[in-house]
Amino acid sequence: MTTLRVRMPESGARPLLLKMGFGETVGELHDAVAKHLKLDADDFELRTSFPNRAYSDKAETLQQAGLTPNAALMLRRL
């Protein structure tokens, strides 16, 4: 299991904490964030600050994306 902390700097809300399997995909992560925050999955992107990267390949697994064993992400509205 990986622990993902998703910050929303624009809103100042507390970070969203998610636990997901290494084999789950970036698309499933987007869907989980959208469900928890009541957003459309296409209205935001998930990024890391270091290294600066946007996670847009929704078929990539969390392990392939380097989001294991834990990661801090930022939500940026498009």
Describe this structure in words.
The chain is α+β, with helices and mostly antiparallel strands and 78 residues long. 15% of the residues lie in helices and 41% in strands. The protein has 1 helix and 5 strands; from the N terminus they run ββαβββ. The protein has one helix at 26-37; strands at 2-8, 13-20, 44-49, 52-54, 70-77. A 5-stranded mixed sheet has the order 2-1-5-3-4, with helices on one face. The chain is globular and about 30 Å long. The N and C termini lie far apart (29 Å). The model has no long low-confidence stretch (mean pLDDT 93).
Tally of alpha and pi helices: 1
Quaternary structure: single chain
Form type: globular
- Strands, count: 5
User: Can you give the mean pLDDT?
Assistant: 93
Q: Order the strands across the largest sheet as they lie in space.
A: 2-1-5-3-4
**Sheet having the most strands:** 5 strands, mixed
Order of helices and strands: EEHEEE
The low-confidence parts are: none
Measured by DSSP, the beta-strand proportion falls in 35-45%
Which structural category do the helix and sheet elements fall into?
alpha+beta
Query: What Rg is obtained from the alpha carbons, in whole angstroms?
Result: 11 Å
